[in-house]
Design a protein that fits this description.
The protein is built from 13 helices and 9 strands. By secondary structure, it is an alpha/beta fold. The two termini are 36 Å apart. Bound molecules: adenosine-5'-triphosphate, pantoate and beta-alanine. The site of beta-alanine (BAL) has 2 residues, from loops. The site of pantoate has 10 residues, from β2 and α9.
Amino acid sequence: MLLLQPSRAFVPLSTTSISRQCPRLLPRLFSTCPALQARSNQATLPNSSIKLFRDVPALRQWRRKQLLDYRSVGLVPTMGALHAGHLSLIRAAAAENSAVVVSVYVNPTQFGVHEDLDSYPKTWDKDVALLRDLDRELAADGGNLGKIAAVFAPTTEVMYPSGRPGQEVDAKGSFVTITPVGEVLEGASRPTFFRGVATVCMKLFNIVTPERVYFGQKDVQQTAVIKKMVKDFCLDIKVIVGETQREPDGLAMSSRNVYLGTRRRRIATTLLKALQAAEAAYLRGSRSRDEILGPAQELARSVLAEQLQLKPEERVKFEVDYISLADPENMMEVQEVDESKGAVLSGAIKMLPVESPQADEDIGAAGGPAVRLIDNIILKPVTV
Ligand SMILES: Nc1ncnc2c1ncn2[C@@H]1O[C@H](COP(=O)(O)OP(=O)(O)OP(=O)(O)O)[C@@H](O)[C@H]1O
Ligand SMILES: CC(C)(CO)[C@@H](O)C(=O)[O-]
Ligand code: BAL
């Protein structure tokens, strides 16, 4: 592990330093070594130096070179449709790693049979432009250790070499399951979700072998599942969690927000407001589940009651899936907050498709399907 630690003081022998010190050696190395030749032909994102890998062998060669050059690698796994939440994770990764790898892969096995795999937003050209602009910003900012070195955008054949397993609960295949943390809350509503996430992340970690991986707080249970997987499978990886990035009105950024449309977008902050009501109770000194969650449930009930007073062409209906008060490590429900640990307040609501859509109404992408929104707030431990 010591060898992997980047050091600003120690400059290892890199291709750059070889070319500076022995200008005639590098061309000879390239012409005789197939691995280096392959690397020199590596595709990049247009108008940038960001390498684009679609397969494993070339990425592994590149990764080996980083290791030999004592360069640390940070991985930011994504499903594309990038927004400021993803970019904040990439910034965090560039601050503390010599090279950042961003993976872009819509992983079928984490989608339930009736979920939105087919309509999941795909915005490759916009993603490429965002990554290129961010890379320039990172390069110009002297405070970073690294910048975006590579995008890994594999095909499903690459990620599932024995064939893609089905999306059904009883599908057969090589899976990683992390229980019980992956069975509750999101796992209860989406029974194959964390199996798919843990499986694809294990693959990405094995392919990229990063020193650090970056995940967003917005998907808090996902971070608990990944931390448990890293611990229980003895992976030599540090899991770093980046703060939830929000729209100006507080809505957590999410690729799926495009499904909302104007009417539902207006009341999409209901979940956050409910969680904030619960947080306020905790900050006032409440520690019991009922005292903390009561105000959240009341807020959601009153917003729904207001909506139901409106005409069908104006109103929005939603269903609260859960509002939870849980242990931060294992996501099990708690009756009382242990002040030394704090707790996680989290929730999910399902915004139902709008009724009586108007002729000129923006009902959201993909015909405005039902949208499940999730959010959470960390109740910090009390320090004395
Ligand atoms: N608002 C956000 N702030 C910080 N990180 C985020 C935010 N939204 C997503 N992330 C993180 O980005 C990573 C990739 O997430 P993903 O590509 O699924 O985007 P998403 O916006 O969460 O999409 P979805 O709508 O599918 O939930 C995850 O670690 C996720 O937690
Ligand atoms: C971690 C992840 C990229 C795995 O597909 C996905 O669950 C996500 O984007 O949060
Ligand atoms: N950000 C989590 C990915 C998903 O909901 O499928």
